[in-house]
Amino acid sequence: MLNYLWGFMIVIGIIVGVLNGRIDEVSTVSLNSAKEAITLCITMLGVMSLWTGIMQVAKAAGITDAFTKALNPILRLLFPDIPKEHIVNEYIASNMIANILGLGWAATPMGLKAMGELRKLNQGKDTASCDMCTFLIINISSLQLIPVNIIAYRSQYGSVSPTEILGAALVATAISTIAGVLFSTVARKLSRNT
Amino acid sequence: MKFLLYISDYIIPFIIFYIVGFGLLMRVPVFQEFTKGAEDGFKVVLNIMPTLIGLMIAIGILRASGTLNLLANIIKPLTDILHFPSELVPLVTVKLFSSSAATSLVLDIFKEYGPDSFLGRLTSIIMSCTETVFYTMSVYFMTAGVKKSRYTLAGALFSTLVGVIASLVLTNLVFG
Fold this sequence. Notes:
Chain B: This is Spore maturation protein B. Chain A is an all-alpha fold. Chain A has helices spanning 2-20, 23-60, 63-78, 87-100, 104-121, 130-140, 148-156, 166-193.
């Protein structure tokens, strides 16, 4: 799917660029975006390593274990196919906790590890398992508790009260996450019946 | 509500303090474990890099060619019926693909209309409750070697749509 999507983005973008007479800008931007991506990755190397390092310490100290135990009843409900004592529970729990705390970069490595374990449980098939679908849908529904970046941007651009949106943002996040959970639960039931 | 601003300043240092402090109490070799984990972070970024380059080039081309503006204009009659400001259509679309591209559009809106305007507040709330659907899916599924993603995209788009609608309703309710 992503093959077509990415291909169409490029093809349509270039065609529109020609029709708009903006092909010179398209040319500059394609080269600059590639450069930008690398610059972003270099910054990310530092931030990402900080969080994977800190999370490794948390794991060694037994902190993630404690959080995982607390999240376990919820995970049992959301992922009925995962064996109870499996390591993937720990990865999913740390990923969710990092997401909730708004530590985006810390969430990704744990999430990728969770996907790796889910793949093993799925016997390496190239079709996503129900648990993979649920995990990603919940992940994408955004669990964020405090949108730290947005608050920073708001104050930077002279907002009288940068945090005034927090309450509404929290409710909106909760609603979208609940919608994602409901969707995955229904889709899981339907796919099992066919 | 002001204390929430202080919390955002304190949350990251506090988490680091708590984890490292707890590690010391548990007699964990903290620095050794940290460097071990940091190495994992390197590997993760190296894995993501090709995907990121590809997506950022595609978004860049869509922006520079004027395709995104074209999309906003095509969608305008529809968004007018739904009372959704068409100015935010590029933002919601871009957010599906790239967080950094969306961030630049957010700053643009704050500059143009102000963060305390209706558009500014709606933007803030939408950004807080949506994720980069296509980006996240491609990175995660590529790592897991998944080619058929089944109902994941439908579910992700559904929860994003619900989030955007909820943002619109809430902005009207709270600030309207």
